[in-house]
Amino acid sequence: MIITDNHMHLYNHLRFKALKQFKDAGGTHVFLVSLLSTHYNIFPRDGRDFKQIFEEHVKMVKKANEIVKAYAILAVHPAELTILARKFGVDKSAEIMKKALEIAGKYVEEGKAVAIKSGRPHYDVSDYVWKTSNEILLYAFEIAKDVGCAVQIHTESFSKEGMLEIANLADKAGLKREKVIKHFAPPAIREFEEIGIFPSVIAMGDNVVKSAQQGDRFLIETDYIDDKTRPGSVLGPKTVPRKIRELLERGYDEDLINIICKENVEKVYGIIL
After folding, report:
1. If residue 92 lies in a helix (H) or strand (E), which one and from where to where?
2. Which residues contact 114 (CB under 8 A, 6 or more apart)?
3. Residue 182 burial by CB count (10 A; 0-12/13-18/19+): exposed, middle or buried?
4. Residue 220 φ/ψ, nearest 5 degrees
5. Closest by alpha carbon to 15, among 73, 57, 54?
6. Where are the domains of the chain?
7. What is the CATH superfamily name and number for domain 4-269?
8. Whose CA, among 43, 53, 157, 241, lies 20 to 30 Å from 93?
């Protein structure tokens, strides 16, 4: 049985031991997402500086495949705008991020990654930063349309209005809405289906059960950060396999698990597990 964690990081704590825990708990497939530039002790002055981050991440994912089936997602996190703008200003920082997204797209074209990550701030920012963040997100969608990949998005908390705004940006770029994956999504499965964006439900509490009660159009994630200053945050690497077992114990069958962890993943990312 395939059990997929759709969003996990490996950083400076358990590293590959986290994947061994995931595997021992029953996990089989994982999508590993690169982190902010600050996690790599890099301060980008040009979008090309992100190539060092992407290279390090791709090499790590290659090694991760010795434990489970792992896929690389390359992130240009929306918070980069705030970080970079302290030195370069908003406009120059946006140029750096757009160039980084172009490079991420090339990695996808070369088969080294399966998706990119973008988004907009989850914290209060000025109107101009918000406007610029949406422009960067639109650019990410345009790149994804060109290279034929999905985009995981890091955004503000779920609201139907906010997700519709993002869906409209995808429409503008010509990217199918189902190729937009809301990272850290709540169990609002029916609302996401109506909007068209694909939810990656954070496996907290009874979120997974609540999601299954509404249908099967969702993915599951831990957003495991692997930060030694916050061990176990956001959720531990064993969480998704444990939540899958909980579904089975509650009477949901393996057909549902296959849809969530295999069929939906293949559909959204355009890959075969």
Report:
1. helix 80-109
2. 31, 71, 72, 73, 108, 149, 150, 269, 270, 271
3. buried
4. -130, 145
5. 57
6. 4-269
7. Metal-dependent hydrolases (3.20.20.140)
8. 157
Task: Kindly report the backbone phi and psi dihedral angles of residue 198, in degrees, each rounded to the nearest multiple of 5, phi listed first.
Answer: -95, 125
pTM for the predicted model, two decimal places: 0.97
**Cβ contact 230:198 at 8 Å:** no
Please tell me the total number of residues recorded for the chain in this structure: 273
| DSSP three-state, residue 72 | strand
Contact 14, 21 (CB under 8 A): yes
What was the pLDDT predicted at 155? 97
Q: Is residue 238 classed exposed, middle or buried when 0-12, 13-18 and 19+ CB atoms within 10 A define those classes?
A: buried
Rounded CA-CA distance 218/181 in Å is 9
* Secondary structure (3-state) at 180: strand
DSSP bridge partners of 70: 30
Q: Which residue has the tokens 């088969």?
A: 111
Give the pLDDT score at 130: 97
Contact 70, 91 (CB under 8 A): no
> What six digits make up the tokens of 202?
């954070």
Most distant CA pair in the chain, distance: 55
**What one-character DSSP code corresponds to residue 12?**
S
pLDDT (tens digit per residue) in 219-235: 999 999 999 999 999 99
- Tokens of residue 273, six digits: 């597990």
Q: Around 134, how many Cα atoms within 13 Å sit in the side-chain half-sphere?
A: 16
